[in-house]
């Protein structure tokens, strides 16, 4: 029976351990916290899983929340600098998505894997600890930070950015007004290009269950970049409401009555997207494999973190289960390079969305606002980013794709004129004022 030590009980670690236990491996799972500590911790990233990844967790017996709401469609509003929604894209997902509080997932997952036969240890894994694990197991996989310092070198060829591209704020809320915006019964994205993207995700929260996880991505130094000084959930939500009132007022009525799900379910910060080499070498000369965020870290703009971790864990579980070893550094690097041929599309999707939209991408999204079939194919990119290649990334391929969908150049021009007429009409009418009663809260 081959043996593996998995360092980190997050998304990649839980999924990889479950898959290899099922395949008959002896699994040692190392967590820096107990299940009770994981459950009692601060709020964690939203981590919405899309269709294929939701199904894979269920296949592994990790679907413990049948009561959690599934996201079955996405509504995207593209807004202008005058606070108007220029047009919307609305279509179903091909398979439901699911966002469950990671405190629940990781706490339950750690207990479950122990019950299935994994050897669970709790504590920070130091360099000496990695050496011991490497000496006593056929393979060590690191899926999280350790006390051993940087294990995996940056890959300069696969890294694109040298600094964070967005300032981030996330908060879980309840008490919102669904009657004001029925679109929020499903997933809603609000984009003001060049300024802010806001994602309103149906979420199963540890404390209140049904809720919404709101993820805001602000252009550094822009009009929505106001969260650096936030020190509490209440303060962060107040700033969020101000940003929405000023930049996305069509969402104000929905958000106005909302409250944080708890004082600790909020996060602020920024992410530097990086890709690292997949194999790290210990002082003894033994090697370890990196998976998940330990080696591929993306900005959360396209929600690929937990999805990428799941895809990577699934790929390596299948490769390891089909191979008798030895699991040499060259073999592991070769497998990672094979995975990267498909996995790189998640990075490309995220990097392209972080950049200003190209003319071809604007045409695609505009066409999607008129053709639900095109919108559905766009949304599939969140589940499988490789499905967007090459038509979302290359202008000639984009135009060929639209032609196959019976959308010609004159159609795109007609759509543009319709949007321009709508925007001009909104300007003539003027923006709907947002009244603020005493205390600074917006009111209608």
Automatic annotation (TrEMBL):
Residues 149-252 form the Styrene monooxygenase StyA putative substrate binding domain. Gene3D superfamilies: 3.30.9.40, FAD/NAD(P)-binding domain. Keywords: Monooxygenase, Oxidoreductase. One of its GO terms (molecular function) is monooxygenase activity. This is Styrene monooxygenase/indole monooxygenase family protein. It comes from Saccharothrix lopnurensis.
